[in-house]
Amino acid sequence: MSNASGLVGGLVGGWNASGINTFQSGFPDPITATANLLANLYGAGTIRPNVVAGCNKVIGGTAQIKAGQAVLNKACFTAPGATSFGNEPRVDGQIRSQGVDNWDFSIAKTTTIRENVNLVFRAEAFNVTNRVQFGDPNLSSSSAVFGIVTTQVNSPRLFQFSLRANY
Questions:
Q1: How far, in Å, CA of 94 to CA of 157, rounded?
Q2: What does 61-127 look like in DSSP terms, one character per residue?
Q3: Using one digit for the tens of pLDDT, what is the confidence trace for 96-137?
Q4: Of 16, 36, 116, 141, whose CB count within 10 A is highest?
């Protein structure tokens, strides 16, 4: 109906739709332990825990993440000795933050009033699918809430409307 004019042309013409989609895997997360003699006296930096051999560090999968739920197995991590750095890697490929899966969408309608005057109505939706993205779990192996997710890092679904006159 690209050749429509009059009222029909005004209703069906001038539409524009666009979207932005973001897909990203999560980053590896660093597990830390309480500072020991090496860190306190010699400035050895961040101390990492020891890992129990053969232990499954991650509980469940990313599809099952919920706020207040443990996602890391605390039994897999033990405090290093007073003069040990710990054997957990600085970042562990098995322990990753939740990835990003975000969909934003907009639709706009331009209506010509006169030759050099038009109205633009725009409707935008951010996080259209209303997907929750949780923050990292607590990553300090000496914490009482170690491995528990307590935060959300994205905003819920948001709609925004505008009407603009161009002249």
A1: 30
A2: -GGG--TT-B-B-GGGEE---TT---SS-SSEEEEE---EEEEEEEEEEEEEEETTEEEEEEEEEES
A3: 888 899 999 999 999 888 889 999 999 999 999 999 888 888
A4: 141
What are the structure tokens assigned to 64, written together? 């099952």
CA 100 to chain CA mean position, Å = 5
Give the SS3 label for residue 96: strand
Query: Residue 137: beta bridge partners?
Result: 149
Q: pTM (2 decimals)?
A: 0.67
Residue 41, pLDDT > 80, answer no
How far does CA 109 lie from the centroid of its chain?
31
Contacts of 56 (CB under 8 A, 6+ apart): 73, 76
What region, left, alpha or beta, does residue 30 occupy, with left being phi > 0 and alpha being psi -120 to 50 degrees? beta
Residue boundaries of the structural domains of the chain = 14-166
Q: Biggest alpha carbon distance in the chain?
A: 83
3-state percent breakdown (helix, strand, coil) of the chain, nearest 5: 10, 40, 50
